[in-house]
Amino acid sequence: MQSPLFAYTEQQSQDRYTVQNPQLLRVALTGHDDVLARKGAMVAYQGLVDFDGEYQTGSQRTARARTGEGLDLMRCSGQGTVYFANLAQYVHVVDVDQDGLTVDSAYVLALDSALHTEVIAVDSQYGISGSGKYQLNISGRGKVALMTSGQPLMMQVTPDKYVSADADAIVAWSSSLRVQMQAQTHSAGVLRRRGSTGEGWELSFLGQGFALVQPSEVLPPQHAQIGSGVGAQFGVGQQGAHGRNQGNAWS
After folding, report:
1. Lowest mean pLDDT segment, chosen from 6-15, 159-168, 178-187
2. Which one, of 205, 198, 211, lies nearest residue 129 by Cα?
3. Dihedral, 235, 240, 242, 244 alpha carbons, nearest 10
4. What are the Cα distances from residue 140, in Å, to 48, 118, 149, 162, 225?
5. Tell me: the pLDDT tens digits for 173-219?
């Protein structure tokens, strides 16, 4: 049998994390260090690999219930090769160092089990439709695989050049950055469908580090409503796209 499909063979690599193709992650397990992955993200595997639900502590369950932020993970252990993907989103591997990484948990595909995760608050009194006022901080040393809808933009932040990004498009940023949530439109404009410009809430980053932005906003199609009431119409709080679209279905 012959086909151009046979060109899509395994990527041979000694690295633990390998991007098999832009939308597929290959992780090598050696029997020593487990990997935590998004539940249901495994698409194939080879070898002797076990999959089990990851236990959540009481504080993690409480934080998830109060903020909506957290990870639903499975633990992958054993010896072999596992392939992960989610909704054909683009995959990017990041080395987490002492500076740490802050990310919306909806964009995490997999991470080393040695890394520590904690829900933190962003500087805002509001919950908005995309990146809400709570995020996930990942610290320690290890690798994390992130997902984006489309090819992303990595923006460098320096003390003399701050960066602002649409709160619905931001994926992750250096934990060392100072972050403020704000709206360029006046308060009355925000209560309309993100003002008359289509723009509204944004995050501003100051300090030294990076901000990762995807070319897609986690919002439903224009004029679509999720849930009911004023919150659903204007995309605010738990009735907004982030609260009702955890799987990022509008990629």
Report:
1. 178-187
2. 198
3. -140
4. 28, 11, 26, 26, 40
5. 998 888 887 765 555 554 544 444 455 577 889 999 999 999 887 64
Dihedral sign of CA atoms 146, 152, 156, 161 in order? negative
Residue ranges per domain, the chain?
11-244
DSSP state of 97: -
Rounded-to-integer distance, Cα 83 and Cα 127, Å: 35
Let me know if 219 is exposed, middle or buried by CB neighbors in 10 A (0-12, 13-18, 19+).
buried
Superfamily of domain 11-244: Mitochondrial biogenesis AIM24 (3.60.160.10)
Of 208, 179, 20, 205, residue with least CA distance to 110: 20
Q: pLDDT tens, 128-145?
A: 444 446 678 898 999 999
Spatial distance between the Cα atoms of 210 and 176, rounded to a whole number of angstroms: 10
Beta carbons within 10 angstroms of residue 224's beta carbon: 12
pTM reported for the whole predicted model: 0.74
Phi-psi domain of 76 (left: phi exceeds 0; alpha: psi -120 through 50; beta: other): beta
The sign of the CA dihedral 208, 113, 145, 39 is negative
Q: Which of 69, 100, 124 is nearest to 210 (CA)?
A: 100
